[in-house]
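hi! just following up on the protien thing from before. the input was this:
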Amino acid sequence: MTLRTKLLLAQAPLALVLALLGVASVGTVSVLGRQSERILADNYRSVLAAQRMKEALERLDSAAVFRVAGRADKAAPMEAPNRARFEQELSIQEHNITEPGEAEATARVRGLWTAYQAQLDEFGKVASAERRSQDYFDRLQPTFASVKDAADFILDLNQDAMVRKSEQAQRAARQQNTALIAATLSALLVGVLSSIWLTSRLLRPLAVLTQAARSIGGGDLDARAIVGGKDEIAMLAAEFNAMTLSLRDYRRSSLGELLQAQQAAQAAIDSLPDPVIVLANDGSVSNVNVAGETLLGIKAGLSTDPLAALDPALRAALVSVRAHVIGGRGSLVPKGLEDAVRIDPAEGPRFLLPRASPVYSQEGAVVGATIVLQDVTRLMRFDELRNDLVATVAHELRTPLTSLRMALHMVLEEVAGPLGGKQAELLYTARGDCERLQSIVDDLLDLTRIRAGRVEVQTVSMSSKALVDAAVAEMQDHAHSAGVRLAVRLDEPILPVRADPERVSLVLNNLIANAVRHSPVGATVTVSTAPAPGLVRFEVKDEGPGIAKEFLERVFEKFFRIPGTRGEGIGLGLYISREIVQAHGGELGLQSEPGQGSRFWFSLPLAA
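and the predicted 3d structure came back as:
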């Protein structure tokens, strides 16, 4: 088993934990969604049917009153459609029996309705006004009241059931949350402990090699690195032992020592699976290992340009890395997988991550650069799988979340009946949490689009003042509720910019929301613009606690949140904002000191 495979297996427990938590989260949201759908399916239609039966019944009673008053011309048009409407809604109710006692109540409505219709028919045939009045008050009106009371009973029965099921759903949600939290903590603990244990086992051979190297450095050429297995570290240990043996044999001869040291060093880098290239200051290749020759086709000591046959992107990366090192700026360490360069050999695409260290002469001058091209193809594929997982989870959450938001909105609009004060308070809290969850899902979807290179902006020419005014107006209520004042300062002249209004509005809203969140009550958040050569600079300044120096660049990383700060996001807002601004051809930056507040700024190009 190779070292790369072992390292990947060491991360497998954490990947499994992530997958299990994703499945559990989707299952929890699905269960809550089904409970809400059950309330609507079982009881909401019966409530509507009961209300509509009562409305039709009251119109029939009004028609009877018209007949008592001698206005048969107004009564006749009301009777037939309202009888049909009552019959239709009663039929719907008879096919939607879901609660105990509802079948008996529905049957009672059917019986009373049949009697009421018969009485209506007889009532319509009475010619005498005095007789009609007596029949109405003695027979028809009491039967009307009985039918209405029976319909009210069905209405009350279903409304009580909706309240009961809502309470059951809330209890189920709390139980699901508790179970999910417990499962999360347990899974994370198991995953972390497993990864630590596996990683420790992988690092033991390195400790053996370190101890052997320390002994050899002290002059003990009899020291050996005993490492079992057939992976790269075992191969390196074998080569290391061979080098030590050769060093001992050539120790008496300085020339032999030099030759053996050179051969051992070459054997060591040849044993590495990643390409290693040593470039001199003039761009020639001083040395290259076997992996570099095999994968890249580079040879050392050629009189022609040794990098001419390389892929243009890789060639440009090597030239840039060499310029960095020989320029005296020290070693180059990649920021992340985004610095990897893609090549397309015959066996399939690969991703190489360059890192470099300077080569010094005896006088201490930089005479070249040693460049290691780490093969991160599998890591890139795992990163793609992770992004696909995030996108899939976000898409799967979107549908049940939309249903949940709709159900909460309908309940708060009292479509399903009136709400008590405590119920409304709890439902408003739930709706706020749904909106925050929707914001998180939208951020995750934006992240997947950004990682896929799909940050698309449709720019138009518009006033910078219009962008600022729209953002401030949208965030005014949020700032007021937080006790923070929003101020606008626009430096003359006010110039137009090329911008996608929707995307830039997202950036401004995010910066203003962060400033409001981190400002104390009574503070002022200032939004300003200022012209600059070829662009307009937008700034959002707060009076918050400021940001420590070590976090000034990290705040723009994905999923990063400053320790100890309060907030409701997941650390994607500033990362997405920077990507949007860069897609416009601008820049986004930050100036801050602890205790002095923060000033976020970004620039947009001027409109032609």
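The chain has a mean pLDDT of 80.
The chain is about 60% helix and 10% strand.
cheers
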